[in-house]
Amino acid sequence: MTQLSAARKPNDSSSNALYGGKGTRRITVRDITLAKERGEKWPMLTAYDAMTASVFDEAGIPVMLVGDSAGNCHLGYETTVPVTLDEMTMLSAAVVRGTSRALIVGDLPFGSYQEGPVQALRSATRLVKEAGVGAVKLEGGERSHRQIELLVESGIPVMAHIGLTPQSVNSMGYRVQGRGEEAAQQLLRDAKAVQDAGAFAVVLELVPAELAAEVTRVLHIPTVGIGAGAETDAQVLVWTDMLGLTGGKMPRFVKQYANLREVMGGAAKAFAEDVVGGTFPQEEHSVH
Ligand code: KIV
Question: Could you say which residues bind 3-methyl-2-oxobutanoate here (predicted)?
Protein backbone atom coordinates (compact mmCIF):
# COMPACT_ATOMS: atom_id res chain seq x y z
CA MET A 1 0.00 0.00 0.00
CA THR A 2 2.66 2.52 -1.06
CA GLN A 3 -0.05 5.11 -1.73
CA LEU A 4 -0.74 5.37 2.00
CA SER A 5 2.94 5.84 2.85
CA ALA A 6 3.88 8.26 0.10
CA ALA A 7 3.75 11.40 2.25
CA ARG A 8 6.37 10.40 4.85
CA LYS A 9 8.82 13.25 5.36
CA PRO A 10 11.97 12.35 7.30
CA ASN A 11 13.28 15.14 9.56
CA ASP A 12 16.95 14.60 8.87
CA SER A 13 17.61 13.91 5.23
CA SER A 14 21.38 13.71 5.71
CA SER A 15 21.67 10.57 7.83
CA ASN A 16 20.62 6.97 7.88
CA ALA A 17 19.10 7.32 11.34
CA LEU A 18 16.23 4.94 12.01
CA TYR A 19 14.00 7.89 12.89
CA GLY A 20 14.47 10.99 10.75
CA GLY A 21 16.92 9.40 8.32
CA LYS A 22 16.63 9.70 4.56
CA GLY A 23 16.25 6.00 3.80
CA THR A 24 13.00 4.90 2.19
CA ARG A 25 13.62 1.16 1.82
CA ARG A 26 12.24 -1.33 4.34
CA ILE A 27 14.26 -1.28 7.58
CA THR A 28 15.98 -4.55 8.47
CA VAL A 29 17.35 -6.05 11.67
CA ARG A 30 20.83 -5.12 10.44
CA ASP A 31 19.80 -1.44 10.57
CA ILE A 32 18.70 -2.02 14.17
CA THR A 33 22.08 -3.54 15.04
CA LEU A 34 23.92 -0.62 13.43
CA ALA A 35 21.78 1.85 15.39
CA LYS A 36 22.95 0.28 18.66
CA GLU A 37 26.56 0.64 17.46
CA ARG A 38 25.89 4.35 16.78
CA GLY A 39 24.26 4.73 20.21
CA GLU A 40 21.04 5.83 18.55
CA LYS A 41 17.72 5.70 20.37
CA TRP A 42 14.60 4.71 18.45
CA PRO A 43 10.83 4.52 18.88
CA MET A 44 8.58 1.50 18.36
CA LEU A 45 4.77 1.49 18.37
CA THR A 46 2.29 -1.32 18.18
CA ALA A 47 -0.08 -1.46 15.22
CA TYR A 48 -2.90 -3.85 14.40
CA ASP A 49 -4.35 -2.60 11.11
CA ALA A 50 -3.21 -1.20 7.78
CA MET A 51 -4.65 2.31 8.13
CA THR A 52 -3.15 3.08 11.55
CA ALA A 53 0.15 1.49 10.51
CA SER A 54 0.27 3.73 7.43
CA VAL A 55 -0.07 6.82 9.66
CA PHE A 56 2.86 5.68 11.83
CA ASP A 57 4.90 4.76 8.74
CA GLU A 58 4.32 8.23 7.31
CA ALA A 59 5.37 9.69 10.69
CA GLY A 60 8.67 7.80 10.37
CA ILE A 61 8.21 5.23 13.14
CA PRO A 62 10.95 2.75 12.15
CA VAL A 63 9.73 -0.38 13.91
CA MET A 64 6.15 -1.53 14.43
CA LEU A 65 5.12 -4.42 16.60
CA VAL A 66 1.99 -6.31 15.75
CA GLY A 67 1.72 -7.17 19.41
CA ASP A 68 -0.59 -9.73 20.88
CA SER A 69 -1.75 -6.72 22.94
CA ALA A 70 -4.16 -6.75 19.97
CA GLY A 71 -6.06 -9.12 22.26
CA ASN A 72 -7.02 -6.36 24.72
CA CYS A 73 -6.55 -3.34 22.46
CA HIS A 74 -8.16 -4.42 19.21
CA LEU A 75 -10.03 -7.71 19.49
CA GLY A 76 -11.93 -7.18 22.75
CA TYR A 77 -10.36 -9.98 24.83
CA GLU A 78 -9.53 -9.43 28.53
CA THR A 79 -5.89 -10.49 28.14
CA THR A 80 -3.45 -11.56 25.43
CA VAL A 81 -3.90 -15.24 26.29
CA PRO A 82 -6.81 -16.08 23.91
CA VAL A 83 -5.16 -14.54 20.82
CA THR A 84 -4.61 -17.12 18.09
CA LEU A 85 -1.92 -17.53 15.45
CA ASP A 86 -4.57 -17.11 12.74
CA GLU A 87 -5.52 -13.73 14.24
CA MET A 88 -1.89 -12.62 14.52
CA THR A 89 -1.24 -13.68 10.93
CA MET A 90 -4.23 -11.70 9.64
CA LEU A 91 -3.37 -8.56 11.65
CA SER A 92 0.34 -8.76 10.77
CA ALA A 93 -0.43 -9.07 7.05
CA ALA A 94 -2.61 -5.94 7.26
CA VAL A 95 0.18 -3.96 8.98
CA VAL A 96 2.74 -5.11 6.40
CA ARG A 97 0.37 -4.01 3.59
CA GLY A 98 -0.10 -0.60 5.23
CA THR A 99 3.63 0.20 5.46
CA SER A 100 6.61 0.52 3.17
CA ARG A 101 9.51 1.48 5.47
CA ALA A 102 9.01 0.20 9.00
CA LEU A 103 10.39 -3.14 10.13
CA ILE A 104 7.30 -5.14 11.08
CA VAL A 105 7.68 -7.50 14.02
CA GLY A 106 4.90 -10.08 14.46
CA ASP A 107 4.17 -11.43 17.93
CA LEU A 108 3.93 -15.18 18.44
CA PRO A 109 0.80 -15.65 20.56
CA PHE A 110 0.45 -17.82 23.65
CA GLY A 111 0.42 -21.51 22.75
CA SER A 112 2.17 -21.10 19.41
CA TYR A 113 5.76 -21.71 20.58
CA GLN A 114 5.76 -23.05 24.16
CA GLU A 115 5.75 -26.72 23.02
CA GLY A 116 9.27 -26.32 21.71
CA PRO A 117 11.52 -25.11 18.90
CA VAL A 118 9.78 -27.04 16.11
CA GLN A 119 6.37 -25.62 17.00
CA ALA A 120 7.96 -22.15 17.24
CA LEU A 121 9.49 -22.55 13.78
CA ARG A 122 6.19 -23.71 12.28
CA SER A 123 4.36 -20.72 13.80
CA ALA A 124 7.00 -18.14 12.97
CA THR A 125 7.17 -19.43 9.40
CA ARG A 126 3.47 -18.60 9.00
CA LEU A 127 4.06 -15.01 10.14
CA VAL A 128 6.98 -14.65 7.76
CA LYS A 129 5.49 -16.40 4.70
CA GLU A 130 1.78 -15.54 4.99
CA ALA A 131 1.98 -12.10 6.64
CA GLY A 132 5.40 -10.95 5.37
CA VAL A 133 6.82 -9.77 8.71
CA GLY A 134 10.55 -9.06 8.93
CA ALA A 135 10.94 -10.52 12.42
CA VAL A 136 8.96 -12.22 15.16
CA LYS A 137 8.76 -11.64 18.90
CA LEU A 138 8.29 -14.19 21.63
CA GLU A 139 8.21 -14.05 25.42
CA GLY A 140 10.64 -15.66 27.84
CA GLY A 141 14.35 -15.55 28.62
CA GLU A 142 16.22 -18.74 29.52
CA ARG A 143 13.03 -20.74 29.07
CA SER A 144 12.73 -19.69 25.39
CA HIS A 145 16.38 -19.83 24.32
CA ARG A 146 16.02 -23.09 22.33
CA GLN A 147 13.12 -21.64 20.35
CA ILE A 148 15.12 -18.48 19.60
CA GLU A 149 18.14 -20.52 18.51
CA LEU A 150 16.20 -22.58 15.98
CA LEU A 151 14.35 -19.58 14.54
CA VAL A 152 17.56 -17.61 14.12
CA GLU A 153 19.38 -20.62 12.60
CA SER A 154 16.45 -20.90 10.19
CA GLY A 155 16.79 -17.28 9.09
CA ILE A 156 13.99 -15.72 11.15
CA PRO A 157 15.09 -12.69 13.20
CA VAL A 158 13.78 -12.76 16.77
CA MET A 159 12.98 -9.97 19.20
CA ALA A 160 12.87 -11.43 22.70
CA HIS A 161 10.67 -10.17 25.56
CA ILE A 162 11.57 -10.49 29.25
CA GLY A 163 10.56 -8.92 32.54
CA LEU A 164 6.77 -8.82 32.71
CA THR A 165 5.52 -11.27 30.10
CA PRO A 166 1.74 -10.76 29.75
CA GLN A 167 1.14 -14.24 28.28
CA SER A 168 2.05 -15.55 31.76
CA VAL A 169 -0.51 -13.33 33.52
CA ASN A 170 -2.15 -16.37 35.10
CA SER A 171 1.05 -17.32 36.93
CA MET A 172 2.86 -13.97 37.24
CA GLY A 173 0.12 -11.30 37.36
CA TYR A 174 0.91 -7.77 36.15
CA ARG A 175 3.68 -6.97 38.64
CA VAL A 176 7.03 -5.21 38.37
CA GLN A 177 9.72 -7.81 37.65
CA GLY A 178 13.38 -7.88 38.69
CA ARG A 179 12.93 -6.32 42.14
CA GLY A 180 15.39 -7.67 44.72
CA GLU A 181 18.82 -9.20 44.18
CA GLU A 182 17.69 -12.68 43.15
CA ALA A 183 15.08 -11.44 40.66
CA ALA A 184 17.57 -8.92 39.23
CA GLN A 185 20.16 -11.70 38.69
CA GLN A 186 17.48 -13.81 36.95
CA LEU A 187 16.61 -10.90 34.65
CA LEU A 188 20.28 -10.48 33.75
CA ARG A 189 20.56 -14.23 33.05
CA ASP A 190 17.44 -14.04 30.87
CA ALA A 191 18.84 -11.07 28.95
CA LYS A 192 22.14 -12.83 28.30
CA ALA A 193 20.37 -16.08 27.36
CA VAL A 194 18.30 -14.42 24.61
CA GLN A 195 21.31 -12.52 23.32
CA ASP A 196 23.41 -15.71 23.25
CA ALA A 197 20.58 -17.52 21.47
CA GLY A 198 20.77 -14.91 18.68
CA ALA A 199 17.93 -12.46 19.38
CA PHE A 200 18.53 -9.12 17.60
CA ALA A 201 16.77 -7.08 20.32
CA VAL A 202 14.99 -7.61 23.62
CA VAL A 203 11.91 -5.97 25.11
CA LEU A 204 12.20 -5.21 28.84
CA GLU A 205 8.73 -4.78 30.29
CA LEU A 206 8.02 -3.29 33.71
CA VAL A 207 11.45 -3.61 35.32
CA PRO A 208 13.18 -1.07 37.60
CA ALA A 209 14.91 1.68 35.61
CA GLU A 210 18.33 1.02 37.19
CA LEU A 211 18.19 -2.66 36.27
CA ALA A 212 17.07 -1.90 32.71
CA ALA A 213 20.01 0.53 32.44
CA GLU A 214 22.40 -2.19 33.61
CA VAL A 215 20.99 -4.72 31.11
CA THR A 216 21.35 -2.09 28.36
CA ARG A 217 25.01 -1.53 29.29
CA VAL A 218 25.82 -5.23 29.46
CA LEU A 219 24.15 -6.33 26.21
CA HIS A 220 25.39 -5.64 22.70
CA ILE A 221 21.85 -6.03 21.28
CA PRO A 222 19.39 -3.17 21.75
CA THR A 223 16.94 -3.12 24.63
CA VAL A 224 13.40 -1.88 24.01
CA GLY A 225 11.81 -0.55 27.18
CA ILE A 226 8.20 -0.33 28.25
CA GLY A 227 7.95 0.78 31.85
CA ALA A 228 11.72 0.28 32.10
CA GLY A 229 13.01 3.85 32.51
CA ALA A 230 14.89 6.15 30.19
CA GLU A 231 18.15 4.27 29.61
CA THR A 232 17.02 1.57 27.20
CA ASP A 233 18.05 1.87 23.55
CA ALA A 234 14.47 2.04 22.32
CA GLN A 235 11.03 2.71 23.78
CA VAL A 236 7.77 1.00 22.84
CA LEU A 237 4.22 1.98 23.67
CA VAL A 238 0.91 0.36 22.81
CA TRP A 239 -0.58 2.76 20.29
CA THR A 240 -4.11 2.82 21.73
CA ASP A 241 -2.63 3.79 25.13
CA MET A 242 -0.27 6.38 23.67
CA LEU A 243 -3.05 8.07 21.69
CA GLY A 244 -5.68 7.88 24.42
CA LEU A 245 -8.03 5.45 22.72
CA THR A 246 -7.86 2.77 25.42
CA GLY A 247 -10.46 3.47 28.10
CA GLY A 248 -9.88 3.35 31.86
CA LYS A 249 -6.83 3.96 34.03
CA MET A 250 -3.46 3.84 32.30
CA PRO A 251 -0.30 2.33 33.79
CA ARG A 252 2.12 4.95 35.15
CA PHE A 253 4.62 4.33 32.32
CA VAL A 254 2.18 5.42 29.59
CA LYS A 255 2.45 8.96 28.26
CA GLN A 256 -0.69 10.01 26.41
CA TYR A 257 0.07 12.18 23.40
CA ALA A 258 -3.57 12.65 22.36
CA ASN A 259 -7.08 11.83 23.53
CA LEU A 260 -8.57 9.97 20.59
CA ARG A 261 -11.35 8.54 22.75
CA GLU A 262 -12.65 12.05 23.36
CA VAL A 263 -12.12 13.14 19.74
CA MET A 264 -13.85 10.07 18.30
CA GLY A 265 -16.67 10.08 20.84
CA GLY A 266 -17.27 13.80 20.20
CA ALA A 267 -17.32 13.29 16.43
CA ALA A 268 -19.70 10.32 16.71
CA LYS A 269 -22.09 12.41 18.86
CA ALA A 270 -21.92 15.36 16.45
CA PHE A 271 -22.78 13.03 13.55
CA ALA A 272 -25.67 11.49 15.50
CA GLU A 273 -27.06 14.92 16.41
CA ASP A 274 -26.82 16.10 12.78
CA VAL A 275 -28.72 13.02 11.61
CA VAL A 276 -31.38 13.25 14.31
CA GLY A 277 -31.73 17.02 13.80
CA GLY A 278 -31.86 16.73 10.00
CA THR A 279 -28.72 18.85 9.42
CA PHE A 280 -26.79 16.06 7.70
CA PRO A 281 -26.59 15.49 4.81
CA GLN A 282 -26.74 18.94 3.27
CA GLU A 283 -26.79 19.94 -0.36
CA GLU A 284 -23.00 19.53 -0.78
CA HIS A 285 -23.20 15.92 0.41
CA SER A 286 -25.98 14.99 -2.00
CA VAL A 287 -25.83 13.72 -5.59
CA HIS A 288 -28.45 14.49 -8.25
O1 KIV B 1 2.00 -7.21 22.71
C2 KIV B 1 2.58 -6.13 22.88
O3 KIV B 1 2.09 -5.06 22.50
C4 KIV B 1 3.86 -6.13 23.55
C5 KIV B 1 4.46 -4.81 23.89
C6 KIV B 1 3.81 -4.25 25.09
C7 KIV B 1 5.93 -4.90 24.04
O8 KIV B 1 4.38 -7.17 23.81
Answer: 68-69, 107, 137
Q: Quick one: 192 exposed, middle or buried, by C-beta within 10 A (0-12, 13-18, 19+)?
A: middle
Per-residue confidence band for 4, with pLDDT thresholds at 50, 70 and 90? very low
Cα 51 to averaged position of ligand 1 atoms, centre (Å): 19
Is 286 annotated in some ligand binding site? no
Phi then psi dihedrals of residue 2, to 5 deg: -65, -30
pTM listed for this prediction: 0.94
Q: Which residues contact 121 (CB under 8 A, 6 or more apart)?
A: 150, 151, 154, 156
Q: What is the pLDDT of residues 52-73, one digit of tens each?
A: 999 999 999 999 999 999 999 9
Written as one string, the DSSP assignment of 29-90 is HHHHHHHHHHT--EEEEE--SHHHHHHHHHTT--EEEE-TTHHHHTS--SSSTT--HHHHHH
CA distance 191 to 121: 21
Distance 184 CA to ligand 1 centre (A): 21
